[in-house]
């Protein structure tokens, strides 16, 4: 070890700690310890230890590749999360060097092996007055054993590259490549009382008041929001209690958690820490008056409210296990049944029998209901989507697989609404494929009516054709009623069944040679479940199963909630359509444009008023994106760089799906290019030779389904739909995340 660049420094080492070497948290703990405050003993793995690890493990170049794939400004949060997950897996996959292991082993001899340890982040700038990184980096408590300490240290190092930390640094204009992480290893001090205290009221720093909060048990219960604390407001000058607010806890007896002498000790400690550092501290503590221990002290983060607000928002991107479980119970037990029932109720309503005023009321009620559910979607369904990401980190931390996305296998075979619909579609396609006369009849009717036909008319003509079509008709009836009452591109799918019938004809065609060689992931859900349970051990079995269940429900509902909300949108359009037809008969509405909710106010007013004002549904002409010719060198890039979302290699012609009219045009083996694969269009995925999406992320619908089916997928390709045109020949490399435009290089050599 270079004595000038020590890997480890004890917290009680002499001298003034340099926070560029030990990080902000360790530097302050060392100062507190030297000043005589009771601080849990421990040591700090320096930023030099971090540098030694990433250089020895050759992680630096991999991090540069992950963050250099595209500009951070152009990366969606999901793409940043994916990069962070892969970086986290790199840290877990690489063991500490022999020198680092020996250094840690020697230092652990100072501790009683029966006492659990806390492994905490201490990044440069963390806990400073200028920037608050509170909650963005890992802190792992209750760690026992040398191997567990090494794993925890690597997780804390990796948290320097978490999605929330990267986003926060981006907001602050900090260069992630220059970031370094030290790690504090301390004995845990367990007490029956813990909490947080502020030398001044964070809500109003001008008041000469201090705030003390306390919970029964460890401080993590308060910091993680698991237990509601008792709260005292105290006058700094008189040392008297200004106000006390008891916490709302099930086992609370409404008696204060702290005695008067406990409050006085905490307040005196706060003021002493303030005098030492010359700034007002936010202090974590544990213990009673004669055994008070300071766990952490940092400046109260009120000088930069905008920054603190952003940091708080980033932390909401990853709700803790307790919040996820609460959301799971509320969403599955209440919200999803209510959402489904709302769609059923609207679908059963006989709008045609309502008078004009009743129809106007029905339209407004549907609009208000849809608005309410969209708010619930953002407030509760979106945060619950983190359950899948929580499963990812939990599985990878325990199992440490070679493939950081191996956990996706745990999500297979879920009873998604889209999967149920796709199963019905597959069966209908099988029927067409095994009955040549039936398929020919469907093709002829499609050619005759193009895409304007309604299913009842199509069904009647098919049944009159003298072929065995009863089973197919019954199956499509079921599909039509159960699954097509949704919107896509502001249109009800059930109003245009011709597009889906065209997809069925394509799916009924014999598969190509390239499709027969598709390789889907081999690990089944049960195997991966057992693998995880073996890794965590018997004592954590219940915890692991709960994380798995939350992840599975989160994955299933992130698909189902979209379809259920789309049904409400469909019912809103249905009510508008009934109103439009009624007003057309009265001669008060004209025009053949596309009806959407922008006409809602006009239609409602027309239903309620008897004026003769004419409403015109204007023709909506979609502007075509500029065509980029592949024959003009310099205008179109040879390669587009994205994220490798599903491994494999496929060459084919581009088919862009950007609107409702594109659905029925898709042909087997084409490369599906779109903004993002929505739950309403996942039935196209089995038809495609490869997938290119603008939206990035390994856990979006397209990526998951592509991996299950063994279809190459590259997503996160900026401007993909603007650059790639229908008919362009492209090669999708799902291993490297590259889309090559034009003939492959080996083809050009001949």
Overview of this protein structure:
By secondary structure, the chain is α+β, with helices and mostly antiparallel strands. The strands form 4 sheets. An 8-stranded mixed β-sheet has the order 14-21-20-16-17-18-19-15, covered by helices on one side. Residues about 305-310, about 620-635 and about 745-750 have low confidence and may be disordered. Helix content is about 45%, strand content about 15%. It has 4 domains: about 10-185, ATP-grasp fold, A domain (Dna Ligase, domain 1, 2-Layer Sandwich); about 195-315, ATP-grasp fold, B domain (D-amino Acid Aminotransferase, Chain A, domain 1), CATH 3.30.470.20; about 320-410 and about 525-615, no CATH class; about 640-750, Phosphohistidine domain (Glucose Oxidase, domain 1), CATH 3.50.30. The longest helix is centred in the C-terminal third of the chain and has 45 residues, at about 540-585. The two termini are about 60 Å apart. Helix 11 packs antiparallel against helix 12 and helix 14 (about 415-435) crosses helix 18. The chain is globular. Strand 12 (about 590), helix 22 (about 600-610) and strand 13 (about 615) form a beta-alpha-beta unit. The protein has 25 helices and 21 strands.
Please render the helix and strand layout as text.
Layout: E1 8-10, H1 19-34, E2 42-45, H2 47-56, H3 60-68, H4 77-93, H5 98-108, E3 117-123, E4 139-143, H6 146-158, H7 163-172, E5 181-187, E6 193-198, E7 209-216, H8 220-223, E8 230-235, E9 241-245, H9 260-277, E10 281-286, E11 293-299, H10 305-316, H11 321-348, H12 356-384, H13 386-399, H14 417-434, H15 436-449, H16 455-463, H17 470-483, H18 497-508, H19 513-516, H20 525-536, H21 541-585, E12 589-590, H22 600-608, E13 615-616, E14 639-641, E15 643-646, E16 649-656, E17 671-674, E18 690-693, H23 701-709, E19 713-715, H24 720-723, E20 729-733, E21 738-741, H25 745-748
Helix pairs in contact: 3-4, 4-6, 4-7, 4-13, 7-10, 11-12, 11-21, 12-21, 12-22, 13-21, 14-17, 14-18, 15-18, 16-17, 20-21, 21-22
């Amino acid at each position: 070890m270079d004595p000038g660049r020590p890997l480890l420094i004890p917290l009680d080492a002499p001298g003034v700690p340099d926070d560029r070497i030990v990080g902000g948290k360790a530097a302050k703990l060392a100062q507190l310890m030297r000043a005589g405050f009771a601080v849990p003993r421990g040591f700090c793995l320096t930023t030099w230890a971090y540098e030694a690890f990433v250089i020895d493990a050759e992680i630096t170049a991999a991090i540069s590749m992950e963050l250099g794939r595209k500009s951070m400004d152009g990366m969606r949060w999901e793409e940043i999360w994916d990069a962070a997950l892969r970086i986290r897996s790199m840290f877990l996959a690489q063991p500490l060097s022999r020198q680092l292991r020996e250094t840690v082993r020697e230092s652990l001899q100072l501790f009683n092996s029966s006492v659990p340890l806390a492994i905490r982040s201490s990044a440069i700038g963390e806990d400073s007055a200028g920037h608050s990184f509170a909650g963005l980096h890992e802190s792992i408590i209750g760690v026992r054993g040398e191997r567990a300490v090494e794993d925890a240290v690597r997780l804390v190092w990796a948290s320097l590259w978490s999605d929330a930390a990267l986003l926060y640094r981006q907001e602050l204009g900090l260069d992630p490549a220059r970031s370094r992480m030290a790690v504090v290893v301390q004995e845990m001090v367990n007490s029956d009382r813990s909490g947080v205290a502020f030398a001044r009221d964070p809500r109003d720093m001008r008041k000469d008041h201090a705030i003390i909060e306390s919970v029964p048990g460890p401080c993590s219960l308060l910091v993680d929001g698991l237990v509601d604390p008792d709260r005292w407001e105290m006058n700094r000058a008189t040392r008297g209690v200004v106000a006390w607010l008891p916490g709302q806890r099930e086992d609370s007896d409404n008696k204060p958690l702290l005695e008067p002498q406990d409050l006085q000790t905490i307040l005196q400690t706060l003021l002493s820490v303030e005098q030492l550092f010359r700034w007002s501290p936010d202090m974590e503590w544990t213990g009673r008056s004669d055994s008070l221990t300071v766990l952490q002290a940092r400046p109260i983060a009120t000088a930069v409210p905008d920054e603190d607000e952003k940091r708080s928002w980033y932390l909401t991107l990853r709700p803790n296990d307790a919040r996820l479980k609460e959301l799971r119970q509320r969403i599955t037990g209440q919200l999803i049944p209510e959402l489904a029932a709302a769609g059923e109720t609207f679908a059963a309503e006989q709008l045609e029998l309502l008078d004009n005023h009743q129809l106007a009321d029905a339209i407004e009620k549907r609009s208000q209901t849809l608005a309410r559910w969209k708010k619930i979607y953002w407030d509760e369904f979106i945060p619950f989507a983190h359950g899948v990401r929580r499963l990812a980190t939990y599985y990878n931390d325990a199992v440490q697989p070679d493939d950081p996305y191996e956990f996706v296998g745990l999500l297979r075979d879920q009873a998604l609404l889209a999967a149920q619909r796709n199963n019905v579609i597959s069966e209908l396609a099988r029927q067409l494929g095994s009955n040549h006369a039936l398929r020919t009849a469907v093709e002829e009717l499609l050619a005759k009516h193009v895409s304007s036909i309604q299913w009842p008319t199509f069904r009647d003509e098919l049944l009159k054709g003298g072929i065995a079509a009863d089973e197919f008709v019954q199956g499509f009836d079921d599909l039509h009623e159960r699954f097509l009452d949704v919107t896509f591109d502001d249109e009800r799918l059930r109003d245009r069944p011709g597009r889906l019938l065209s997809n069925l004809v394509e799916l009924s065609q014999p598969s190509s040679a390239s499709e027969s060689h598709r390789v889907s992931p081999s690990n089944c859900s049960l195997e991966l479940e057992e693998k995880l349970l073996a890794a965590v051990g018997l004592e954590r079995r219940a915890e692991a199963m709960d994380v798995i269940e939350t992840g599975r429900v989160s994955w299933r509902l992130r698909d189902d909630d979209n379809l259920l909300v789309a049904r409400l949108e469909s019912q809103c359009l249905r009510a508008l359509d009934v109103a439009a037809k009624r007003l057309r008969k009265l001669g008060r509405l004209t025009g053949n444009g596309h009806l959407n909710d922008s006409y809602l106010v006009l239609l409602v007013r027309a239903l309620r008023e008897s004026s003769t004002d004419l409403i015109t549904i204007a023709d909506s002409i979609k502007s075509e994106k500029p065509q980029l010719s592949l024959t003009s060198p310099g205008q179109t890039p040879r390669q587009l760089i994205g994220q490798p979302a599903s491994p494999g290699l496929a060459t084919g012609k581009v088919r862009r799906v950007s609107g409702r009219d594109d659905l029925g045009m898709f042909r087997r083996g084409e490369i599906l290019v779109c903004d993002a694969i929505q739950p309403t269009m996942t039935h196209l995925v089995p038809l495609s030779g490869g997938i290119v999406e603008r939206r990035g992320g390994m856990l979006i619908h397209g990526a998951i389904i592509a991996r299950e089916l063994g279809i190459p997928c590259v997503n996160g390709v900026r401007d993909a739909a603007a650059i790639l045109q229908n008919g362009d020949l492209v090669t999708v490399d799902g291993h490297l995340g590259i889309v090559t435009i034009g003939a492959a290089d080996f083809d050009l050599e001949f």
